[in-house]
Design brief:
Layout lengths: L6 H15 L12 H13 L3 H14 L26 H10 L4 H14 L6 H15 L5 H13 L4 H5 L1 H21 L4 H13 L3 H14 L4 H13 L3 H14 L7 H27 L2 H13 L1
Length: 305
């Protein structure tokens, strides 16, 4: 049907699918409307309705920032210029950039498009960054460009040759990611995902108190966030706050579905917290029995024996 260029009928059918998706009696294999809006945007673009297409792409992007690259229905391992009926490509996105030179959205979408291909080729990192920076200049009040800059650096902290080669190759991108997430938070103090991503970056740098503060903020904004409970528990384990970590893992377990693939890991984390709490309590009692040199000798003897 797409090849027939019956754009009007296709758009009507997609409009109806979007309208009925949220009805109480509606049944759908799609958990959300990302694919609907993305396809409708592609049809609108093919029909020359560029503004409507851009608005739909923006809607898709904001539905799930973590999966924003689904906007383009990307195929392959490198950017393509050949148009396909259901897929956005480099030529299409460049067209939107040209059509709306003062709008930050096309630059942001192009940056997201390039970011996808960093998985396969590092050359796309600077291309994505350039587009995100362009978006910040076009709309300095939006936190989204800074957020995606942060995501790009977060990915570079583990998915580049430099990151695999040295600690600084990992830590440098983490620090730049934190700076970008901080700017996004300054523009939107309730930007939950930016706090979560910054917490993860702090965790990667082993700056656990800062990570915990950001996990606290995530849970202020989203009290049912299972990932934040679990990750805050891990951060608390690293600085010896075992009882608090225990509580966090328990909160994560209570909020997880019985079929969740990570449920077993949460139970294991809580078990580890119990063990380390018991060990800490044991050594505290032993230290109370001995003081100064006697305690050091006691520890040394225990290690030798």
């Amino acid at each position: 049907m797409l090849g027939s260029r019956e754009y009007g009928q296709i758009s009507k059918d997609l409009d109806e699918a979007i309208r009925t998706h949220s009805l109480p009696a509606s049944e759908s294999i799609y958990p959300n409307l990302i694919d609907h809006y993305s396809l409708r945007a592609r049809i609108e673009f093919s029909a020359g309705r560029n503004r409507e297409a851009l608005d739909d792409l923006d809607t898709v992007m904001k539905m799930d920032l973590d999966s924003a690259d689904r906007v383009s229905n990307i195929e392959g391992v490198e950017a393509e210029k050949t148009s396909k009926p259901c897929v956005w490509n480099l030529t299409d996105l460049d067209t939107l950039v040209t059509k709306f030179p003062r709008d930050y959205q096309p630059a942001l979408l192009l940056g997201i498009y390039f970011k996808f291909f960093t998985t396969f080729k590092e050359d796309y990192y600077p291309k994505a960054l350039q587009e995100f920076q362009k978006a910040t200049l076009l709309n300095p009040k939006s936190p989204l460009p800074q957020y995606f800059i942060g995501q790009l650096y977060s990915k570079a902290s583990f998915w580049t040759k430099a990151a695999w080669a040295s600690d600084e190759g990992r830590n440098g991108p983490y620090r730049r990611a934190i700076a970008a997430y901080t700017k996004a938070i300054q523009l939107d103090p309730n930007f939950r995902l930016a706090y979560a991503e910054r917490a993860s970056a702090y965790h990667g740098l082993k700056q656990y108190p800062q990570a915990i503060k950001d996990y606290d903020r995530v849970l202020d904004l989203d009290p049912e966030n299972v990932t934040a409970y679990n990750d805050r528990g891990l951060a608390r384990m690293e600085i010896g706050q075992y009882p608090s970590a225990n509580l966090d893992f328990g909160d994560a377990i209570r909020r997880k579905d019985e079929q969740a693939t990570t449920l077993g890991m949460s139970y294991q984390n809580r078990g580890d917290a119990y063990v380390w709490a018991e060990r800490k309590q044991f050594w505290r009692k032993e230290q109370q029995r001995c003081t100064g040199r006697n305690f050091r000798e006691y520890i040394s003897a225990g290690l030798r024996g």
